[in-house]
Amino acid sequence: KVVSSEAGEGLPGVSIVVKGTATGTTSRNDGTYSLTVPNKSAVLIYSFIGFEAKEVSVGNQTTINVSLTPSTQALNEVVVTALGISKQQRNLGYVTQKIDNSALVQARETNLVSQLAGKIAGVTVVNSPSGIGGSSRVTIRGEKSLNINGNQPLFVIDGLPINNNFVGSSGRNNQDADYGNGAGFINPDDVETMTVLKGASATALYGSRAANGVVVITTKSGKGTKGIGVSVNSNLTFESVLRLPDYQNVYGQGLNGEFSFQDGSGGGLRDGVDESWGPKMDGRLLVQHDSPTDKGYRAGDTRVPGGPGVATPTPFVAHPDNIRDFFETGRIMTNNVAVTGSNDKGDFRLSFTNLAQKGYVPNTDLTRNSFNLNAGYKLTDRFTARTNVSYIRNHSDNRPNLSYGTENIMYLLNCWWGRHIDMKSMQNYWQPGLEDIQQFNFNYNYHDNPYFNLYENTNGQDVNRVIGNVTLAYQLTDWLSVQGRTQVDYQDELRTRRRAFSTQRYPYGSYRREAVKTLERNTDLLFLVDKRINESFTLSGTAGGNQRLNTYDYVDNFAPQLTVPGVYSLNNSRVPLEYRQEQNERRINSLFASGQLTYQDKLTLELTGRNDWSSTLTLPTGVVGNADNSYFYWSGTLSAVVSDWVKMPSWVSFAKVRAGYAQVGNDTEPYQFSQPYNPGTPWGTTPTFGESTRIPNLSLKPEISSSQEYGVDIRFLKNRVGLDVTYYNTISRNQIIFLPLSGTTGYSQIVQNAGRIQNSGVEVMLNLTPVRLDNVGFRWDMNVNFSRNRSKVLELANGVSTYELADRYFSVQARVNERMGDMYGYAYERVSSDPRSPYYDPTGQYVGQMVTTTDGRPISTTDLKKLGNYNPDWLAGINNSLTYKGFNLSFLFDIRKGGEVYSHTYVVGREAGQLVETLQGRETGYYDNSTDKEFKNAPEGTYYVVPGVVQTGEGQFAPNQRRISAREWHTAFTLGRRVLEGAIFDASFTKLREIKLGYSLPNSIMGKKLPFRNVTLSLVGRNLFLWTKVPHIDPETSSVAGGTVIPGSESVAIPSARNYGVNLSFNL
Amino acid sequence: DNNFEEVNTNPNVPNTVTPDLLLPNIIRAPINENMGTAWGIGNSVMQYTAKIQFVNEDRYLWGEQNGIWNVTYSTLREVQNMYNIATNSSPVQKNYQAIALIMKSWMMSLVTDAYGDAPYTEAIRGKDLMYFPKYDSQETIYNGILKDLAEANGLLAPENGAVNGDILFGGDVMKWRKMANSLRLRYLMRISNKRDVKADMQAIVGNQTATPIFTSNSDNAALRYLPTVPNQFPLYTSRVGSFDEFRLSKTLGDKLMQLNDPRLGIFARPTVASVAAGKPAYVGVPNGLDDNSALTYNGGAQNVSRVGTNYYIDGFGTPTDANLNIAKGIIMTYAELQFILAEAAQKKMITGNAKEYYEKGITASFNYYALDVPAGYLTQPDVAFADAKALELIGTQKWIALFYNGLEPWFDWRRTGFPAIKPGPSNLNQNRVPVRFTYPSSELSLNKPSIDEAVQRQGPNDINTSVWWDK
């Protein structure tokens, strides 16, 4: 039995593990437990949140009663490390951080990965703007790889890796939807803890993919269940748009102050125009798309037989909330029921979770049903078997389109929408009698009705996923055990995209089916050693091997035009189907060993070593080269509990220092040693092929990143203050990159070992208990995470000074001696103090000012300039938790300082006259500056003068006085989207990431009759408030381009949401 | 042992192909791009069309025009592969070698005429570790083009093997030969201000057996598109609004109306308002207006002519045979050749009758559009051949005949100055007509030393720097 030293009551849920192994249990509700230990020399570790962990040697005892002392901080606990092995944090030579189940399920996210934001020092999470459980891109300790997709951590469940694929969805015009990333499908309700192993020393044992850190997920089991063993968690939250741009509400659709609807494609007065430079919305009577006609139609019912008739003009007025009205209140309902049971022989947990989400974007949804069985049985005292199987079914009728283009509703709403449009007028989106054939819209030149877009042009998704593992463990001797495990992660996904007749990009509609099957299988065999050598030394270790297999199978069929409207089947194609197929496979075999030697629980040395053999680095049959498919790497860490060696002042309760060095190797993608010919779109029945544009490299070497990590963990004032500081420095070398080439070489990339990237940074975790009043039961805890990372490019491939990582609006470039994440593009020419500049000002008077043309517009630089960097200067999370008796209030602020973001909404929203900035200079109408005469007499407020100087002669400048119209200025500020300087913003923000107010009913209230126990009711909210200087958008965004998430670029993103609701949990 | 060699062998796609599998895209990709760039830039700079919305391009705020550059170098890779596969075959597939040389020459001429100096001798050699191709002078490129075309003429013969995958000429190697020699005349004329090309021209024109050239419209190097996606005339998949941004230019419209030229009905449609009023009339829009003036010109979109029905199918229509015969992806036509010969004859570079070539050129152009030359057309004062203004007449008729023929009219105008092109009133280029595209900014990222050297030699990387043959 485990009891609390204060109250003497039994403690439920205490984790009890056999040191150095993965075996263990949890105490029951009354604190009792039972556990079979391998031998007498076994050491049990007891740990529980809020209490000091304790180690007890078993010896001859059969009953071990333990009393745990409350600690103010939960730092001294057992953590799950590599391969699923538990270790006492006290002896670890590296830093880990974890999140418990309650933090995952109460204020929850559809995508589990998003939960890492703000809670873990050194972790950056970027969510893609999809509205419903889209992808989350996580980086730990900065960007180590020059491959922008290669910076994600590895996700591991119960010791074995799963896939976290982000299968992109480009390949056909437009059709860029976000179908989520692999780890995002994991059901939070089945997760006991998520532990983040940040440094390579923590991760060396996972091999190739762990260079970017590991997120270790431990699932719940039924161990220690007593009573009926039913737990229930219900969560209901609502979502609404967090931030919309500030639109102007003075001028409507049109140009030159003119507008009148006729056919929405130029037949009326400027009615083909999709910009908002039209008349004032002052109630004047104008025919609009929804004005009634004498035949009972709407003016916009342009295709009804005989025409819609004569329309009666209606008042032209602003609908300031039309876009806000478009978004709905999203609803996410999650219900989890788990049944658990256990006895001396075995335990099980069976869980079912249903998630039903209705997006805040109309007609978007997601349902997810997760079944999980986690069971173990002792066949003999020495032989145990465990299994954990999850089946996840994920279904969406529609995930919204992203990226700049007609298929993204924000392209329309943020850029090309009319402020006069009543959103309700768009809801009936078919023209009468032309259902399935012709949409109804306010503009037929360029756009799709947003409701039509979302209700007819859907991107469906069906995912069936099974993750299952089996573990057999056998105790060979009292200090040696062996275990074999295998895990399969199989996912079968179908994506269907429908496009209806009359869609701008698909006048005859289209239908596409993508089938994606992925498999990851890991099998390992481990020998586990745990031996107390003498009174002072303990040795524990692991040695074994792993075999990994990944396969990927992708088939895409596309009917580019349909025969009969409204029938979505490949059978209904008007023209031959287009198709694409890809299969690949990779295998990695590994041998590894690790050992941990502890001296008197004060000093611990841990060494690991691993060798991988990768198929992706193996030359195919018949290919000659000297690529190397075998690579070895190792790590060593040392930790010392200084407070046990040296007498510390009384206010220091604990002090530990740690140091480590580690290497991690990495391979590449399959088939990098051949340069095949890929099929192209046939010409009728004539096939065509084209050579792959990536040049292989037959001397490829594995990547190796090596890192050093130093840290201290000090606690003061009886553990009321805990400070953990880590410094790390990682060098990645021989990176396998796809070096972009000038197109004039005929190729786009060459596979190269290149570069040295340095990441160095500091992570600070501060835990405080500023107030603790045990007598009244009040307590205030505070957690602060701080991290700062710098990624620097030390070296690139031979002869290369610049490497382009991505190109989307701006060019993301790595240059030697510069930071990773630098954004390059054209800037404004400015007056210079450099005599070599064409804009040299010898007087110095105008240096720094923007140079304008004689037409009064900015001038673009001729070379690319650094415009910013998308990585933050630092990140911080501040969590406060206030507890009073059964009440708990916690709130988390997430702070990002520095870094830049580019906003495409800002650029196009200004061009189109939608945003509030565009009121500048058009207060009384329009002036045409082609005739200077009129313009020169224009009153103030009806034109704009670009602040800058014009060059009047060599080295001579004068202030620009040239007037240009508002319409022109808002395009000229980017020179027609060439110069991005004016649309780059400081991306700093502060978010109220999470707030929870919970109340736990005392079990005594229920009495003996009612079966409910541990009833907790919480009010929860996420992302409730945002503070930022970036105009119009949430800077926490990215854009998705062909399967690549590009940070720092906002591409008419769907706005992010705030989420609030209630969570109820209880046990039976 | 672990069978990794097999695991890492790509099962999806072949590592070797035959030349006929590369040829379709070698023809299709650059032609599509040339038509696309002509629609966006070429037609408006030559004032066939004018923009009424998003008028930046028409005001010479061009930004980057990277299409020709990117597609050329990407397609040249396939050209090189086709050439190598043909060379390594047994027997050597000379016809494919020749077609490779012709396509390479045409594409490189587009690049150098549009951008000036460009990678040539070191281009497409990424596999030889040549990652930073130097820019060759335009003169070097032209020497190479002329040499390659001459060589292609010598390689092509029916007995040198069948040509499959030929979506341009259906495997008719004689037509490829005619194209090679006709292109030689075009490029010799192009550099004729820099070099005496008389002998070379005469050699080609003088021996029709050794160097055959186009003899009728049926020889035209023009890709006939398919009626359905995905191989339709590129404009057919545009949004109607995007198509309608481009209208008949006042320059072209006024000229054709002045000449009573029925080709106007092919190039443009009568305004919607005039048709509704029962009096169909054509109205062109002046180039280079500001946004407001452009869109409100003559009362707006209903009162200015759209581009002709062949070039865009409204609604759910399907293109007819007649549409497909006109809306082609044109590399070079028989009509253009006649105008080249007319100019050459007029300048005494070849023997022959300039007037005769001139009138053949006009007739060929009408016939291409399935029209007959109206009675009296050739004798009216502004058309009738006259020695004193022969070059202007030839230039003007050539300009009309080159409507939507890729970028060729722009290149030709830069050399001849005919017809006179006047920048629009709201142009943003100090009243200069652009004479060049700027290099892609990707070259600044990926091939900086080479591009810097080229800019040093050629002049500023802007739209006003003349290329070598134009200096």
Explain this structure to me?
The complex is a heterodimer of chains A (1068) and B (471). In chain A, helix 7 packs antiparallel against helix 9 (966-972). Chain A has 10 helices and 56 strands. The mean pLDDT of chain A is 86. The longest helix of chain A is centred in the C-terminal third of the chain and has 8 residues, at 904-911. Among the domains of chain A are: 2-71, Carboxypeptidase-like, regulatory domain (Immunoglobulin-like, Sandwich), CATH 2.60.40; 250-319 and 409-455, no CATH class; 851-863 and 902-986, no CATH class. With 1068 residues, chain A is mostly beta strands. By secondary structure, chain B is mainly α. Among the domains of chain B are: 19-49 and 62-224 and 435-470, Serine Threonine Protein Phosphatase 5, Tetratricopeptide repeat (Alpha Horseshoe), CATH 1.25.40; 234-326, no CATH class. In chain B, helix 4 (94-115) runs parallel beside helix 6 and helix 14 runs antiparallel to helix 15 (354-368). Chain B has a two-stranded antiparallel ribbon. Helix content of chain B is 47%, strand content 4%. Chain B is globular, with a radius of gyration of 23 Å. Classes of the chains: A mainly beta (1068), B mainly alpha (471). Chains A and B meet through strand 27, strand 31, strand 32, strand 38 and helix 9 of A and helix 1, helix 2, helix 3, strand 2 and helix 8 of B.
Low-confidence stretches of chain A: none
The helix/strand class of chain B is mainly alpha
Query: What's the count of strands of chain A?
Result: 56
Number of alpha- plus pi-helical segments of chain A? 10
User: How much is the radius of gyration of chain B in Å?
Assistant: 23 Å
Task: Report how far apart the termini of chain A are.
Answer: 22 Å
Query: What is the CATH domain class of one domain in chain B?
Result: Mainly Alpha
Strand order of the largest sheet of chain B: 1-5
Largest interchain contact: A-B, 101 and 86 residues
> How much helicity do the residues of chain A have?
under 10%
Oligomer: heterodimer
Mean pLDDT of chain A: 86
Secondary-structure element string of chain B: HHEHHEEHHHEHEHHHHHEHHHHHH
Quote the distance from N terminus to C terminus of chain B: 67 Å
Portion of residues in helices of chain B?
40-55%
Q: What's the rounded overall pLDDT mean of chain B?
A: 95
Overall, the morphology of chain B is globular
**Largest sheet data of chain A:** 22 strands, antiparallel, barrel
CATH architecture of one domain in chain B: Alpha Horseshoe
